[in-house]
Structures are given as structure tokens and as C-alpha cells.
From TrEMBL, chain A:
<dbReference type="GO" id="GO:0020037">
    <property type="term" value="F:heme binding"/>
</dbReference>
<keyword id="KW-0408">Iron</keyword>
<dbReference type="GO" id="GO:0016020">
    <property type="term" value="C:membrane"/>
</dbReference>
<keyword id="KW-1133">Transmembrane helix</keyword>
<comment type="similarity">
    <text>Belongs to the cytochrome b5 family. MAPR subfamily.</text>
</comment>
<keyword id="KW-0256">Endoplasmic reticulum</keyword>
<feature type="domain" description="Cytochrome b5 heme-binding">
    <location>
        <begin position="56"/>
        <end position="158"/>
    </location>
</feature>
<dbReference type="Pfam" id="PF00173">
    <property type="entry name" value="Cyt-b5"/>
</dbReference>
<dbReference type="GO" id="GO:0005783">
    <property type="term" value="C:endoplasmic reticulum"/>
</dbReference>
UniProtKB/TrEMBL annotation, chain B:
<feature type="transmembrane region" description="Helical">
    <location>
        <begin position="19"/>
        <end position="39"/>
    </location>
</feature>
<keyword id="KW-1133">Transmembrane helix</keyword>
<keyword id="KW-0812">Transmembrane</keyword>
<dbReference type="GO" id="GO:0005783">
    <property type="term" value="C:endoplasmic reticulum"/>
</dbReference>
<feature type="transmembrane region" description="Helical">
    <location>
        <begin position="163"/>
        <end position="183"/>
    </location>
</feature>
<dbReference type="GO" id="GO:0004467">
    <property type="term" value="F:long-chain fatty acid-CoA ligase activity"/>
</dbReference>
<dbReference type="GO" id="GO:0016020">
    <property type="term" value="C:membrane"/>
</dbReference>
<protein>
    <recommendedName>
        <fullName>AMP-dependent synthetase/ligase domain-containing protein</fullName>
    </recommendedName>
</protein>
<keyword id="KW-0472">Membrane</keyword>
């Protein structure tokens, strides 16, 4: 076949601008950009903020029973524990749900989850546990140690009208 | 369908028809670039997510304060570190070890208490002294033990209880420190080079009843008259002045002050030196002076032995295993021993049987190149003034595009988490390095201390990154305070991040040491909320004088739980 096309020399001189060259050049520039771009430092998502230690009175502790998305707290001998991790036991519908948001000391000492183990009057003084025998106080001690190992102490429970309750309210 | 494939086929054929020499060149360049990237990629020194959260916060906080932050070595619920965990020979292998005190550190130096099982050494630590421009002398540990026992017994026999030590960094300084622990007196460490008036003032305030000083460094007549409680004086004389008689006492002092000379005391007992006494109860503490610079008023802090060993133990374990002090390291304290951070690191080096190179050219403003003129240390501790000076002098020499390019390349490598070492690129175009030590490249870690409340020059994270390039070593920045032995917080040795704190203020200080916990108390505008922790720094732990103290500076714990000034 006779080639009557233009002389080959001219086409070679302008061949730098072929499409494949553009593609490869842009690929090269992109790779260099990836390599040279400044790295962002790796971060972890922010940790949840620490719970503030709070002085509770029984009416203030009452809402913390797991309903309405509230955490589950219960009080043992003046110390308020965050038992949200044990929600299956202490949360709504659990076997010990009576204890949630209340002073559970008498119930743990006597080993009973009945309603009459809880103090009825939330505005009255705290249960002094005077009439419990040595066995029951030992049982309570055992329960308290287990709670201290498993759960976080997030507050203390004081009766309504006491000095500490007034001081805590003044600080707020 | 078939038409589509055919169209695609012809489009690709058209594309590849334009293949020519430029295309081959470009392809070669891309492959070479990818090959270089693969060759150059290495893992970072530590996992970046470990640096993304450094201290551990408690889950509960009191109102008006932040949560307590601790080192990850001693998480919440476990006891803080209280000492050295030293195991005297004969204790069962897996016991926890006692806290110990300075006496146990010296027993470890002499080899009486062996190193841990898998560490090997020559049996004792080594102590070298550098004298000016001339020589490096090695000291025999048994001789130093003799000196400790002779001087200690002399002071104890004369009823010394509070002995002021006014010496530059030297073997005599360390001997006096250990003698205090063995022979039941309290060393008072006075920073060297004070004006005479300040020295007299400090001696009176600390109620010193004895003094060990370098011969000729203070006017005995004035000191004797002004400091009424002074009873004993021991001169230490350098070798070149030993022909003179230093025993004479100026008039007016009479028989009140008993003057002796260190090397004569040691000489007299050369043939029958008393041995070190066995443990006889609690060793007394050591008094440190916290002073902005010589001549200024000083805060007097007495640390118990427990404070000191807790600090030393936590400084040892603050470094990860491969980076710790070991018997093959040589340590240069380029800051004065009267700084508890420098002294803590020196004791840690002695405890690990490293070689300690003592240079009397040491202090807050010393030039590191001068201090290392005859030696090549692998570890060194410097003050912030020295580090700032090193940084500014070396930065001035980085001129020219090539040097700046090399520097920025190394900065990129640092940012990706690796410490730059000699590679192909650096051999072609070497970045500027500072001259530290006779053999370049031996320095592997540089410890810098920031003294809280004393207006030390700030080092930003960019400065620290530049220092890593200039010294080709890892740089650790520590926050130190008056009432805390050792340091409050220290950066992770593998933390090379820059730009995490603003460039015009101090870099962050990392996580607290494992012997203490730090919390921030609300102070004026700096309060702790759910979003941030800020306030005045309160430190609790075994290395704090008095158990708990407020540092008087405001700080915050950043998102990565590192401590930083506000």
C-alpha cells in the first residue's frame, strides 16, 4: 500500500501530547500529591466525660431507676453506686428492680427484695439498720464489698434537711 | 452488547496507539516512585493510637475539680508506684521487692544488690569525671565507698545533723549525698555559684550545722561570723591545689568551726577504712532548694527517702523496655545535681549500672557542645535554657535551600512517627546536625526539664521536633515542680507529633509519672466542664513532699489526655 499520508517526521515531533501521556502524567502528579500531602494526626473519639460526684437526698435519687433513659443508681449504707452495667438485675423489669433509685441496705442485709424493705417516706430520715442482727450486718458487709469491686461510687446519700444536703444545694 | 465491547476495544487501541518514548519515560517514573515509596515505608516507632490517648482519667470526679489522671502504668484501682522495687540478694525471685532508699541505690552501684535476672553488666556502675579540656578519669567504686564511709563517719562522730553541700557536680557531691543516707544526716543541696550574701542567707534559712564546700569558693571569715550554727567545715580541694594548707582557720572564729580537708581525711584512714554501716532504721531526707537562678530567693523543700525513691523508680519505668537505661549506656548530667529531675535521672542511671559521666561544667545555662567536648554520651539531661540555646544556635546555621529542604524532609519523617536515621536521602543531602559529643550519632535520648513557675524559656512542639533532628536523638520534655521530686509529667519518648499545641507556647508535657496522680482544681476562669478539664494543678503521690501539693500553675488536660499549660 502506498502511503500518501503526510511525512512521518512531523507527527513524531508533536507526539508528547497524546492522551495516554496525559493520563500517565496526571496519575504521576496525583501519586506525588498523595505522598507529599501533610498527614493529619490520628485521633480517637473523645472519651465520655467523668461523672460528677453528687450528694443525693432520697427524693433526688428516686428518678435514677432506669426508666426514661436514666442510669440506674442504688444506695448502700450512704454510698450511691452506679449499677447501670447490671441493668438486667437492677433495671426495670429485673428481679431486683425494687432497689433501683432507693436505699437498698436493709434489703441486702436481710436478703429480701420485698417492698417493705425499702423506706417508705422519702423525706424522712434514712434507715439506721439498728434492729438488724450480726448475721445480717455481715451479709450486708459482703454485699457492699462486692459492689465496691464491681461498680463505681457516684455519690453519697443524706437525709432531706441535713447539713450536707443544704450545703450541696447551696453549691449548685 | 457486542458493539459496546468493540467500541471499547477500539477506544483502548486508539489510546495505546499513541504510545511513544515519553509514555515509556512516564511509566518508568511512576514505577520508580512507587518502588521508592515501598522501600522507604517503615512502621512508626509506636502505634499512633497509643499517642492519641496517653493518660488515664478516672470515671468519677468531685464537683469543682477534674477527674484524677494517672499514667497508664498504674491505672485507677491499682496502687501508685512507691519506690524502686529493689530485691536484696536472697529474696525469692518473684517477690515484689521493697521500696528501698538511697542506701539501696548505692548497694546496687557497688554490686551488692544484683541487677534483674535478664540484665547483664560488669557488676557495678561506672563513674567517670571530666576535668575541663584535659582528661576523663574513671573512679573506682570501692574507693568511692571508702570516701563515703570516712566522710560520713567523721561527720557523724562530730554530731552533724544538717550538712550543707555547696559543690558543683562532682563525685564528692554524690558521696556526700549517699553518706547522708548511711550516716544519718540530712544533706542540704545548695546550687553552686551563689553570690556570697545569698549563700549566707541560705545557710541561715536551712539551719545548716556543717558545710562541705570547694576550697576557696567562699569567704570563711564572713560565713563563720554570720552563720551562727555552723560547726563543721570540710573543704574539697582539686588536685592542683592540694599542696596548699587548707586547715587554717581565720581569726575571729576561734575554736567554733572545725575545719578539715576531704582528701586528708580519706588519706588518714587509707589503710583501715571503716565499712559502710548496716541499715539502722529510717534514713533522713534530703533538702533541695528551688531557685530561679543564683542570687534569687529560694524555696526550701525537704524530700524524704520515700519521695526520692518513688521518683527514681517511676523515672526508670517511664521509658519503654527497649529505651530504658541499661549497662551499656553512658549518661551525662548536664544540669546541676541540685535539680531533683537531674539527680533523679542520675540515680536511675546508677541504679541500672550505666556509666555516669560527671562534668563540673553543668548547670542551667551550659552549652551542650562544650560540656560534651571530650565524651560521647548516649543519654543526657539538660535544662530548658541549654536546649533553647542549642536550638537557636543550630537554627541559625540552617541556611540555604538545600539545608532547609533536608530539614523539612526529616520533619516529614518525624511527623509520620519515625525517628529519621541515616538513609539514602540524608547521605546525599545531609540536614544540619548540632555538634554534641565527640562521636556524632551516639546520643539516643535527651531529657529536657521545664521548671514550673520559674520563667524557664518555653520550648514549643516545633522546637522539640527540630531538636530531634539536630541531635538525631529522641527528646523527652518533662514538667518539674518545687515540691515534687523528679518530674510531674513526662512526654512519651516516641511522641514526635508537632503542631498539636500552638507554636508560641510550651509543648504539652505528656502523661503524669506512675508515682503520682494529677487533678485540676477550678481556679477563676479555668473550670472543669463536660467538654474540658482545666484549672490549677494538684499533684498527689509518693514523690510529693507532704503527700499532696498545689503547683500554683494553671493547666489543662487536652483531648489526648496530655497535660499542657493554659
Amino acid at each position: 500500500m502506498a502511503d500518501s499520508s503526510s511525512p512521518p517526521v512531523a507527527t513524531e515531533a508533536t507526539s508528547a501530547a497524546t492522551p495516554i501521556n496525559f493520563i500517565l502524567l496526571s496519575l504521576f502528579v496525583f501519586l506525588v500529591y498523595l505522598r507529599l500531602k501533610p498527614m493529619k494526626p490520628q485521633v480517637l473519639p473523645r472519651a465520655p466525660p467523668a461523672t460528677v460526684f453528687r450528694t443525693f437526698t432520697p427524693p433526688e435519687l428516686y428518678p435514677y431507676n432506669g426508666l426514661n433513659g436514666m442510669p440506674v443508681y442504688l444506695a448502700v449504707r450512704g454510698r450511691v453506686f452506679d449499677v447501670t452495667a447490671g441493668r438486667n438485675f437492677y433495671g426495670p423489669g429485673g428481679p431486683y428492680a425494687n432497689f433501683a433509685g432507693r436505699d437498698a441496705s436493709r434489703g441486702l442485709a436481710c436478703g429480701s427484695f420485698d417492698e417493705d424493705m425499702l423506706t417508705k417516706d422519702l423525706d424522712g430520715p434514712l434507715d439506721k439498720l439498728d434492729d438488724l442482727g450480726d448475721e445480717q450486718m455481715e451479709a450486708l458487709q459482703g454485699w457492699e464489698e462486692r459492689f465496691l469491686e464491681k461498680y463505681l461510687v457516684v455519690g453519697k446519700l443524706v437525709p432531706v434537711g441535713s447539713e450536707e444536703a443544704k450545703a450541696a444545694a447551696a453549691q449548685q | 452488547m457486542a458493539g459496546l465491547i468493540e467500541q471499547l476495544d477500539s477506544a483502548i487501541a486508539d489510546l495505546l496507539a499513541g504510545w511513544n518514548v515519553y509514555t515509556t519515560l512516564l511509566l518508568g517514573a511512576i514505577l520508580a516512585f512507587i518502588g521508592f515509596v515501598i522501600y522507604d515505608t517503615r512502621d512508626a516507632d509506636t502505634h499512633p493510637l497509643l499517642l492519641a490517648r496517653q493518660a488515664q482519667a478516672a470515671y468519677i470526679r468531685q464537683p469543682g475539680e477534674s477527674a484524677a489522671f494517672r499514667s497508664p502504668e498504674t491505672p485507677h484501682g491499682y496502687p501508685l508506684r512507691t519506690g524502686l522495687m529493689v530485691k536484696p540478694p536472697g529474696t525469692p525471685m518473684y517477690s515484689a521487692g521493697k521500696d528501698g532508699d538511697l542506701r539501696d541505690i548505692w548497694r546496687r552501684v557497688t554490686g551488692e544488690i544484683p541487677l534483674e535476672k535478664n540484665a547483664s553488666s560488669s557488676g557495678t556502675a561506672q563513674i567517670l569525671t571530666v576535668f575541663g579540656k584535659e582528661e576523663v578519669t574513671e573512679h573506682n567504686i570501692a574507693d568511692i565507698t571508702k570516701e563515703i564511709s570516712v566522710i560520713g563517719k567523721h561527720l557523724k562522730d562530730h554530731g552533724a545533723k544538717r550538712v550543707a553541700v555547696y559543690l558543683p557536680n562532682s563525685v564528692e557531691f554524690l558521696a556526700a549525698l549517699f553518706a547522708g543516707a548511711f550516716y544519718d544526716f540530712t544533706p542540704i543541696l545548695i546550687p553552686y555559684n551563689q553570690p556570697h550574701k545569698t549563700l549566707i542567707e541560705l545557710l541561715k534559712q536551712t539551719k545548716a550545722d556543717s558545710l562541705i564546700a570547694e576550697a576557696g569558693s567562699l569567704p570563711l571569715a564572713d560565713v563563720g561570723k554570720s552563720v551562727s550554727g555552723l560547726r563543721q567545715l570540710i573543704w574539697t580541694v582539686e588536685k592542683t591545689s592540694r599542696h596548699m594548707d587548707w586547715n587554717e582557720v581565720p581569726e575571729g572564729i576561734g575554736g567554733k568551726i572545725d575545719v578539715s580537708v576531704w582528701h586528708q581525711l580519706v588519706q588518714d584512714q587509707k589503710n583501715c577504712p571503716p565499712g559502710l554501716p548496716s541499715d539502722s532504721g529510717k534514713a533522713p531526707g534530703v533538702v533541695f532548694l528551688w531557685q530561679e537562678s543564683v542570687g534569687k530567693p529560694a524555696e526550701i523543700v525537704e524530700f524524704t527517702q520515700q519521695n526520692l525513691v518513688a521518683a527514681v523508680g517511676s523515672l526508670i519505668t517511664a521509658l519503654p523496655g527497649p529505651q530504658r537505661f541499661n549497662a551499656s549506656d553512658s549518661f551525662l548530667p548536664a544540669d546541676s545535681f541540685t535539680n531533683s529531675y537531674c539527680l533523679g535521672l542520675t540515680l536511675a542511671a546508677l541504679f541500672s549500672h550505666a556509666t555516669v559521666m560527671i562534668n563540673s561544667v553543668a548547670g542551667p545555662g551550659v552549652d551542650l557542645a562544650l560540656a560534651t567536648r571530650l565524651i560521647a554520651p548516649t543519654l543526657t539531661v539538660v535544662s530548658a535554657e541549654t536546649a533553647a540555646k542549642l536550638h537557636s544556635t543550630t537554627t541559625k546555621t540552617v541556611t540555604g535551600t538545600l539545608a532547609k529542604l533536608a530539614h523539612s524532609l526529616e520533619t516529614r519523617i518525624l511527623n509520620s512517627g519515625r525517628l529519621p536515621t541515616d538513609s539514602l536521602l540524608t547521605r546525599i543531602n545531609a540536614p544540619t546536625r548540632a555538634t554534641v559529643g565527640t562521636t556524632p550519632g551516639k546520643l539516643r535520648a535527651l531529657f529536657v526539664s521545664e521548671r514550673a513557675g520559674l520563667n524557664t524559656p518555653p520550648l514549643s512542639s516545633e522546637d522539640l521536633s527540630d531538636l530531634r533532628i539536630y541531635t538525631k536523638a529522641r527528646v523527652v520534655y518533662a514538667l518539674t515542680a518545687a515540691k515534687v521530686a523528679g518530674a510531674v509529667a513526662q512526654t512519651n519518648i516516641y511522641d514526635y507529633r508537632r503542631g498539636v499545641t500552638p507554636s508560641n507556647r510550651h509543648s504539652h508535657f505528656g502523661a503524669p509519672l506512675s508515682c503520682l496522680e494529677v487533678k485540676l482544681k477550678d481556679n477563676g476562669p479555668h473550670k472543669t466542664t463536660d467538654e474540658q478539664s482545666a484549672g490549677e494543678v494538684i499533684v498527689t503521690g509518693a514523690s510529693v513532699a507532704g503527700g499532696e501539693c498545689a503547683l500554683g500553675v494553671n493547666a489543662t488536660f487536652r483531648e489526648d489526655h496530655t497535660l499542657a499549660y493554659i
